[in-house]
Specification:
The chain has about 350 residues and is of the alpha/beta class. It has helices spanning about 40-45, 90-95, 135-155, 170-180, 190-200, 215-220, 240-245, 270-275, 285-295, 315-325; strands at about 1-10, 10-15, 25-35, 60-70, 80, 85, 105, 120-125, 125-130, 160-165, 185-190, 205-210, 230-235, 255, 275-280, 305-310, 330-335. Strands 3, 4, 5, 8, 9, 16 and 17 form a 7-stranded mixed β-sheet that branches. Helix 10 links the parallel strand 16 and strand 17 (about 330-335). It binds zinc ion (2 copies).
Length: about 350
């Protein structure tokens, strides 16, 4: 079968490898869709934490189940996606029902080889039924679940102001699930065209360009002086993350979904006087996947609008570098595998 490996930062290589074989407690998926994620682009760029090379990228996957051991309820031939955060099952977070931050986590396409292959072996417990969703939708469940998990972490309430920094695919999903939770959403980005996308497709009424003048003043104006009670970073950009502390209302929760390699800097007195809460949001839980799939079934979100670029598997190598450049206007690139 054909495999695409990121052999080192900046270099992708196709090779032929043996098909995976049936294994106890594992399933084999014939991959049909691969969503390209910021994580993949950062890994290609060499600026993703937790990464070693060579690595087969790809974790936003949809395909057909062709073999399964110990997967009760699953049928060979059905469409599936996966929860790509393979957990150990016995560490403290696993015992506490939080496999998303398992101490021994192996994220498919990050810590271990991922889905840029024709056939992929995964632990059977990672399988998710495709319900009647399309393959494109199924490959978009994981990135949406990241946002849904962040909203869940913040325990977003009806009618509160939620500021989402970053209007990439993760930020967009975060905005969608903030809206579904009943929040009033403010989108922030450095790109006016991305902010316009939020207005046009995501029912986001309030947008702020982070590079414009008096950002704090604009947020005060939008929120009647209160400032957002929830701030969420979906940029993974250090200066954006540092700035986010200034956008918190008193009593606000600040949730970091985005990830970068540096040390965060913020004023202790400013944070302290707000009695702020800072938390990270890592991966997602099966309950987040269920929440996302319910929302997709009900038509509450339409992430197909995020797909700006579509290529076949044998075209990924040539197209990949262009997706790292903002001028290509990429939101979500989707790979179709025959
Ligand atoms: Zn992703
Ligand atoms: Zn564990």
């Amino acid at each position: 079968m054909k495999v695409l490996t990121c052999t080192k930062p900046g270099l992708l290589t196709y090779s032929e490898q043996y098909m995976p074989v049936s294994k106890k407690d594992h399933a084999i998926i014939k991959i049909k869709r691969i969503g390209i994620c910021g994580t993949d682009l950062h890994a290609f760029g060499g600026n993703q934490p937790y990464f070693n090379y060579p690595r087969v990228l790809g974790h936003e996957l949809a395909g057909e189940l062709i073999d399964a051991d110990n997967a009760p309820g699953f049928q060979v031939g059905e469409a599936v996606t996966i929860i790509p955060y393979f957990n150990c099952g016995h560490c403290l977070p696993c015992r506490n029902g939080k496999p998303n931050h398992c101490v021994n986590i192996q994220v498919c396409g990050v810590h271990i080889d991922g889905g840029m292959v024709q056939y992929l072996s995964v632990p059977s417990h990672a399988l998710v039924h495709g319900r009647n969703l399309s393959l494109d939708h199924l490959a978009l469940v994981e990135p949406l679940a990241i946002g849904a998990h962040g909203i869940n972490r913040a325990a977003v309430q009806k009618n509160e102001w939620v500021l989402v920094m970053g209007a990439g695919p993760i930020g967009l999903g975060t905005m969608e699930f903030a809206r579904i939770a009943g929040a009033k959403v403010i989108a922030m980005d450095i790109s006016d065209s991305k902010l316009q996308f939020c207005k046009d497709y995501l029912q986001v009424n309030h947008v702020v360009n982070a590079t414009s003048a008096d950002v704090v003043g604009q947020l005060q104006h939008i929120t009647n002086g209160d400032m957002p009670t929830v701030v969420i970073d979906a940029t993974g950009n250090l200066s954006a993350i540092d700035n986010g502390f200034k956008y918190m209302s008193h009593g606000a929760r600040y949730v970091l979904i985005g990830l970068q390699k540096g040390d965060i800097n913020f004023s202790h007195p400013e944070f302290h006087k707000r009695e702020g809460t800072l938390m990270s949001s890592r991966n997602a839980l099966r309950s987040d996947f269920d929440h996302v799939m319910n929302a997709l079934e009900l038509g509450l979100v339409d992430p197909l609008t995020y797909i700006t670029h579509r290529v076949k598997f044998n075209e990924v190598k040539d197209a990949f570098e262009s997706w790292t450049k903002p001028e290509t206007g990429v939101i979500k690139a989707m790979v179709t595998v025959d």
